[in-house]
Every structure is written in C-alpha cells, then in structure tokens.
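for the record, two folds in this file. i put them one after another cuz i was lazy. first one right below, seq on top, structure tokens after. the second one comes after a little note so u can tell where it starts
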Amino acid sequence: MSAQNFWQAREMMGQPSPARERLAMLFDADSFVELDGFAMTGDEPAGVVCGYGAVMGSPACAFAQDGSGFGKVQAAKIAKLYDLALKTGIPVVGIYDSAGARVAEGADVLAAYGELLLRINNLSGVVPQISLVAGTCAGSSALLACCADFVVMTKDAQFFMTPPALSQDKAEGAGTAEAAAKAGVAHVVADGDAQAMDAVKQMLMRLPLNNLAAAPVLDFAAPAEELPAAGASGQALAAAFCDSGSVVELLGGFADNCAYTALASLGGSPVGVVAASGKLTADGCNKIAKMVNVCDAFQIPVVTFVDAAGFEPSSKAELCGSVREMAKLSHVYAEATTAKVAVITGKAYGAAYVALAGRAANSDYTIAWPDAVISPLEPQTAVAFLYGDKITPETSREQVQAEYEQGEASALAAAKGGHLDDVISPELTRPAILAALDLLSAKRVSRHPKKHGNLPL
C-alpha cells in the first residue's frame, strides 16, 4: 500500500493524520510541499511527514511525527530536511510525537539518532530551530528536541530521557510540561496544538531566516502601557517600552523570581528583552545566558533592564556551583557581538553591574534612571566598611546609607566617572533605546581568531 493510500484509508476510518493536521496549522494555506511522501518502513509509512512552505509569508522547513515508532527511514527523511535547510538557509520546525525507537532495528536506529544529532548541531546558530513537543518525546528524541534554540510544549505532552515509571525515585510530575518549564527546558507551554503553533509563528516572525539574513521588519504600534514605577517587574518593563502586543515571554516558569526573558520588537525591529531583579540565582543566570546566546547567534539586539542587588549569597548555592553559572553569564555577555543596550532602573550592585551593564559586559550603550544606585557592594555593607565612623548618636546608619546612595553611589556619580553614557528620566527610555539601536544597526566587531571561547560549563 502506498503512503498516500494509507493516509486516505485512515481518514476514511475517521482517523486523520495528526502530523498532517499540525503541519496544516503551521503553514500558510496551500503552501506546504511534502518531501519523500512515499517513503515506507516495510508496509507502513515512515511515521513522519516532512516538507517546506510559507509560515506567515516566510519560508520554513518542518517535520511532524505521527505518534508511531522512530526508525532509520524516518531519520533519513528528517536528515534530508535538515540538509535542505542548510542549503537554503531557512528555519526548521520539528514537531515531536513518537512512541520511541524501533528497537528491532538495533544499532541502525542508534546510528540514525546520531546522524540527526550531528545535523542539528551543525545547523545550530546557522538557522533558527524550534522544537514543538506535541505528544511523547522520550529518550534520544528528547535529546534532539532539546538541542533546538527554542522548545514549545503542549500542556499534556511528555518530555523525558528515562520513563518516570522506570526511574528509581519516581519523582512526582516528572516528564510533564510543567516540570519541563520549571527546569528551564520548555520555553513556552501551550494549552493545545493551535496555541502551540501560534507561539511557534510568533517566534519565527521575530527571527531572521538565518545568521546572515537581515532581521524582519514588523508592523508596530507604540506601547499604551503607563510608565512603570521603581521596582517594576520585567513583564511590566517590556510592556511599557516595547511595541504594543509584540512581547513573547520565554522560559516564564523558570527562575521567574529574579530573571525575565522575552522576544519582542522596538520600532518594528526584533529585540531580545532581559530583565534582572533582586538577587540573581544560578538558574536566573542560566536563563539570561540562554537568551543572550541565541540572540547573539542571529544578531538580534539585546535590551537589558537591571535592578539587581548582586548575586544570591548562599553557601548552599556555592555547593551547587552557582559561581559557574554566574561566570557563564558574564562570559556570554562579554563574548556577544550583537548590539547590547543596558538600562539601570534601580539597583546595580557589584558583579551584577559588571556582568550585565558594565564595560566588562561589552555593553554598547548604558543608561540609568536618576534614582538608580550603582555600588561595588550593597550600600549597607559599603557603609559598614567605609563610613562606620560617620554613624553617631546624632547620625543614624540609615542616614549615612542614604547619603552614600545619593552621592557616591548615585547614577550621576557613575556618569561623571565615565561608567554610564547618560542619565535619563523614565519617560525618555523608549526614545533613548530606539536611537541607540538605530545607531548600532551598523555595528561590526572582529574577534581574535580562535576555535571558540572556553565557556564555564
């Protein structure tokens, strides 16, 4: 039986192909062109539909698994698709829903996984890759999906390396979309296929076709949100200064107590938005580093809002290697050559300032609000070390600290020292960022020749 007749038979029985239905949701009407539609595994279809078409008017490749087993024929179809994406420089969307490997194929299926992993990594940073986990994605398939730039999951999907039922600890919730979001694996969790496809489309709209292509120019409207107050959340800052309706939050369930990341647009041009608040944790550092790394790969400018009182001080955190994640964050910012604009909205203490907004972070343009406090130590600690003698029965510690924050640690003092490019009122933030991004659109940086930097992994 041919593949086409097989699907026709299923549809006649009231069982349409889930893979084709999902691809129809993704691609513009009548634009999808299928590849290798007659490839078979024995007497059955290969278990995946591959092809290319237009998504919101822009070209893209995609494959969708149909819930059956993964084997060498399926892998060969997907490998062809990756080869096509490399030749043409267009994004790849992988829709994962598989019953797992065809164990009967033995070492052949292991080699098939290896071939795909090689292609995914060769394409990394060349074209955008988005994984959509719409069913079960387990074992080596989970490894493949996780190597994409972004991972979208439907809330009922499963995503794991080892089946939770077979694990020794049997942790509650293991393999669920909720767990994947909390672990920083899933960038977006959607209620169903339609919402997941919309999330994929929103991401593709804000990404260039490849690392050499110009970023798309989007229609935009100025934000209608009121100016945020001091201490506002990253979500509020993004809504207030980015184009209206353009913000797509990513990794929302991961380290959201101290870090916010999103894709958005400013003046119609795509940007990555980062907001650091409070005490940055190891997970917060990892979340921000992930975002900046992807933006840098595709030359998407990064706008960083800083209101961070340093890094989380904890001996337990040090036992867990948090200093490694903090060093990773600093490394990613310093190595990124894309345009970087930093806005200090409140606190910027110690290493948090250095890593996110300082010259060491290779920031192209750093501005601060008038009430920002920029200090090498937390003000109370700085006062204890430097100005303890000023604390008297007549002058309280709070008064001395306030004098320090308004004087030596003020935004104006940092600007006078050449550590800031400007001090502006909050209502001028959007025009200042737009002007900086316009200038930096022609930014060119040459690095020392090397294979790669030694990222603290």
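(here's the note) second protein begins now
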Amino acid sequence: MIPLTKLQKEIMSEFYNCLPQRVVFNKKERNAFWKTATKKGYLDIENIRLKCPALAHQVEKSYKNNHNIQSAVFSECVYAQTFANMLNLNVFTNCFENHEFIPENVRELLRSYNLYPRYSYSNESKTRILIQAGGCNGIDSALISIIDLNIFTIEFKEAGAKTCEPDLPKYNEDGKLLVTDDFIEKYPQFQQMLEEQKGLNFFEKMGSNVNNFSFESVNVAVTNNYVKKYADVVCTEDVYGYLVMLPANQISLWAKIFGEIRPAGKNHYKVWTLNALKHFIKEKSGFIEGYNVSINKSKLGIRKPRGRYGRISGYKINPLFFVYINKCTEKGDKINFDLHDVRQLNPTIAGKIFFEELKYSEVKKYYFN
C-alpha cells in the first residue's frame, strides 16, 4: 500500500471515524434538478434550501443571471454539505453576501491556494470552517482550524469526471498539434500525453476525439493534476450513494482512468486559421467574395447551446467552425455571413476518471483495516 501523508492520514482518519452518510441529494435527484434548471423550470427551492442551501443559491443565481448551471456544481454543493454534516459544521454562510465572516488571516491563507470562498460551513464556536470555493486554478474546498490555521485541501469529483480540461495552444494553418513551452510550464502533467500524439492533425481528426494514450501517461496527468492544485484528498460518491474520501495521489487505485484530446473543445474564439476556413467553405460549394460568404443552408449543421432544448443558436460549417444565427441573414435556401463573425473551437486535453465500482466499505478497510 502506498503510504498516506500526515495530512491525508489525519483527515481520512477523522472522516472514516464518522458515521457513513449518503449524499444529501443522489445522482438521480441531481440530474432531475439540473434538467429542470437548464430549462428554467419550476424547482422547489425552499425544499432544496433546507437540505443544501448552497445548491439553492446556485440555482437562484443561474435563474437571475439567465446563465446555464454546470451539473458538476450541483455535485460540489451536495458533497460539501454532506461532508459538513458529517463533521457537525452546521452554521452555513453565503460568502457572496457575507465575505466578512471569514477572518482576514484565513482569507490570506486561502488566497495563497488560489481559493476564493463561495460558501462556508462552521461549528457554533467558529473554531473550524469548511470552505467551498471557486477559481479555475484552485482546489474545490478547504477544511481549516481557525486557531492554528491547520488546513486540509479537498477536491470534489463526480463518479465520472475530468480532472481538468485546459485549452491547448492554437494550432497553425496546417492543423497540426502545437505544444509550447508556456503550456508545458503551466500544465506539466500533460507533457507525456502530448508526446504520444506528435503529428496529430486536428483537421483530419475533427468530429472525433483522441483517446489512444498509455496508462502511464494518463496516470501522470490524473495524479499530478492534484499535486499541482495542492489537493490532499478527493471526495466522491460510491455505488450506493455514500460519500467517500480518497488520497488525491492514489486515484488510479480506485478509478478507471482515460485520456482525451478534443479537437473541438468548449471554448471558441475569433478564427485564427482563416485560410483553412475558406478551404472548408469552398469544399461545401460556398461562395466567398471578400469576407462575405454565401452558402446553401443544407450544407450546414445546426448548433444548440448546452442544456437548452429546441433552440438553434447557430450554424456549423464543420465540427471546428460555426457562426451565430444572429450574425447570419437568410435568403431563400442561402445563408449569408461575414468571415469575421465565424467562431473557431479550440482543442482541449483532459484526464478522465470513472469510479464505476467504488464502495465506501472497501476504501475504509483498505486504509484503516
């Protein structure tokens, strides 16, 4: 068995000495909430608030701002609340509304971890606090003893999740994978995966993801992701819905892991391979005069926002390029738009973890037999 660090042993010993608890809303319930929330439908917010006030606030905020809410946020709120319940941290504070609740020395400590409080859970005496956080470069949560500033860092992950998914450097007009020193310096955990894909051409692979990586390279990406983010442990749920805690550097002992490069990731930008775009339009018998494009509507796919139903937001030229519908004019069977208005999807890389057979009892026995 790989030995636990001092911090891992301390927090996991306390966790597994508590009575096991099922998460406050199971995956089926969370999926139902998410589907309703993305359609801006009716949810019994007050009932949700009784069990998980952070989740209720996230839904309310998404409705107010007309933004889609990520399903992973539902799980983070539920896992944090369940962990707080196990530790009897019963005082909930919404840090969006009351950021002064956290002492300044604790806020300074959190900033050093790139951790920005969203919600907190504390005991009545306020000597111990669980912070649920935000920030793309930080961990999800931290458990802090106020008196001595002892801190345990925690990552919340769904039973099927990505460790992180950064944009890859923008490739050139030839479409070939580009790896820069800056990217490797920022995301060293992906270096081995990228070395296995030298010569990858995104124009040839568009429409399908790349998954042929060695176990060793993916294990480095998954494990080192949490080292880089300073996570001591990861919390997820097992097959029966119980909250489980694992050492962040031992994920591959408990999960199936995969690597993935997506030629068309989630982020899009102004077109950076204009010549390639023109080539793809002409392949579809589109007509280009200057920057004005006219193309038969039947040659284009349709694009819908994630989580939205029935609403078309744009037209796809191919899996890498699209244009928003409000930037187009329609004349007969033709769609017209300006090349400057086309958006290009950036490739991403990720390590993926799946806890398909995880059981609380087996994890506890393995580390604390």
